[in-house]
Amino acid sequence: MPLLPNSRTEPDGSAVIRVLSYNIRSMRDDTDALARVIKACEPDLVLVQEAPRFFRWRKKLARLARASDLVVVTGGATTTGPAILSSLRASVERTEDVLLPHTPGLHRRGFATAVVRFAGTRLGVLSCHLSLQKDERYDQAGMLLDRLAGMGVEHVIAGGDLNERPDGPAFRLLAGTLTDCRAASPWGGEHTWTPADPYQRIDAIFATEGIEVLGCGVPIGHPGVTDTDLRAATDHLPVLAALRVPAS
User: Fold this and answer.
1) Which member of 1, 51, 101, 224 has the greatest number of CB atoms within 10 A?
2) pLDDT in tens, 142-184
3) Rounded distance between C-alpha atoms, residue 178 and residue 138, angstroms
4) C-alpha distances out from residue 172 to 66, 112, 179, 217, Å
5) Does residue 196 register a pLDDT over 90?
6) DSSP string, 106-117
7) What is the Cα–Cα distance from 112 to 55, expressed in whole angstroms?
């Protein structure tokens, strides 16, 4: 398997960045394995789903970030699960945690959002975990697109656990407006659930037009990422993308 490009700044001010989307199941599994997987991927941004939400949740998320050579940008219990981590390469301009309308009887959902800068680029970022219920999930996909459009940034990425395959209506709604990074430039593995027997792709990273996708997929066989750690870390496989973001 070819290696993904390393993070770098181009002479024209554009930036090659690595983005990881990962459902970490509230860090209820092997957190050492989880940190090893994240660190080996050398991400500039991590879009987290199911971050810790209860007792000492901030300390738990900060501990994971520190073990992965990252910092916490935003999210966690304040978004009911989604969060954003970054490397020190990112300069954070602003953050906003968004709670979505609550359907009685269902888990409340939210978005973790931020605007960050890498060298001469400015980038909107959103981490999501969409509903298990089909109609609510479709509505949330629409809210996600509305949120991205309202961030006031030309270039935006969004990623997370969609709880739906690419042929589902919510996934298709997102892919109709945004670039499905895996479909644009397949790399690594395809299926993200379950680690023991992956058979479906329900996690994804999307980008707005103008962002070049250099490769995207599950980092199976990536240097430092072992099958043992992937199975032990959580109940999803991560999605790793290399993107070239134009200078602002």
Assistant:
1) 51
2) 999 999 999 999 999 999 999 999 999 999 999 999 999 999 9
3) 15
4) 36, 22, 11, 18
5) yes
6) S---EEEEEEEE
7) 20
**Alpha-carbon span 175 to 108, nearest angstrom:** 24
Q: pTM for the complete prediction? A: 0.98
Token digits of residue 173: 């709604």
How far apart CA 178 and CA 124 sit, in angstroms, is: 13
* Nearest of 191, 131, 192, 141 to residue 163 by alpha carbon: 131
Quick one: tokens of 56?
Answer: 């000492």
Shortest CA distance to 45 belongs to which of 230, 198, 207, 222? 207
Q: Rounded CA gap, 138 and 211, in Å?
A: 25
Q: How far apart are CA 141 and CA 158, in angstroms?
A: 11
Residue 42 host element (H or E): none
Q: Are 138 and 173 in contact (CB under 8 A)?
A: yes
Taken in order 138, 161, 201, 153, the sign of the CA dihedral is: positive
The residues facing 238 across adjacent strands are none
CA angle 203, 162, 28 (to 5 degrees): 70
